[in-house]
Amino acid sequence: MLLDKGLVLMSDTRTNSGVDNISVFRKMHVWSVPDERIISIMTAGNLATTQGVISQIEERAKAHNERHNSLLEAETMFQVATAVGKILRDTIAASSEQNGEDASAAFRASMIVAGQIKGGQPRLFMIYPEGNFIEASFDTPFFQIGETKYGRPIIIRGYDRDMSFEDAVKLLMVSFDSTIKANLSVGLPLDLLVIETGTFVPTHQRRIAADDPYYRAVSAGWSEALKNAFHALPDYSFFSE
Question: How far apart are alpha carbons 154 and 168 in whole angstroms?
């Protein structure tokens, strides 16, 4: 989510290939160079694909002293998005080639790239499986990937570009809570990252578990508020007056 003050990012951690095979994996990855840049990538889709992309970005196959993270040397966030898009496209293409044309859909994934590099503004991109991308603006101030339909209406109705970081976090929690209650493919814990413009380090970062007191209060309060709002609406009558 893009705000006047910066960026607010949230991701769940559930991956599954059926109701009897559910695992927890981090979908938010963060790199920071103090006073110079902060970059985050959030992932959705095939786990092998997304892990392959992150591994290539960090060059995990190499020895520690030989690794070279190109994202930490890109001059602009646009260059970062371009690089991530190319790696994603090439990873999907390589997997599809190895497993046959019919397997291409199985390796699909999408990503959100967000952050700020010194000299530029905070920027937010959504990367498609084909490697192309679009950028957020205050006309389209937030992106969702993965399961989107249940939480999207809440963000649309509650978003305000000058809202506080705290209110933005609350809004995203409500959005995720509604999605979690409606879809088994999304689940706790949630990862949260707040990036204030010009800081180049996480302003606030934490993992929100199922027993988190604030999350539980928001979840219960939202359910009760919806019930109260429903009962406050005018009653429907079968008989016109």
Answer: 12
Distance CA 193, CA 195 (A): 7
Burial letters for 213-225: b for 16+ Cβ neighbours within 10 Å, e otherwise?
Answer: eebeebbeebeee
| Neighbour-count burial of 198, counting CB atoms closer than 10 A to its CB (0-12 exposed, 13-18 middle, 19+ buried) | exposed
With the CA atoms of 42, 47, 52 and 54 taken in that order, what torsion angle do they form, in degrees rounded to the nearest 10?
20
- Residue pair 117/36 in contact (Cβ under 8 Å)? The answer is yes
Q: Indicate whether this model's pTM tops 0.90.
A: yes
% pLDDT > 90, the chain: 88
pLDDT of residue 103: 62
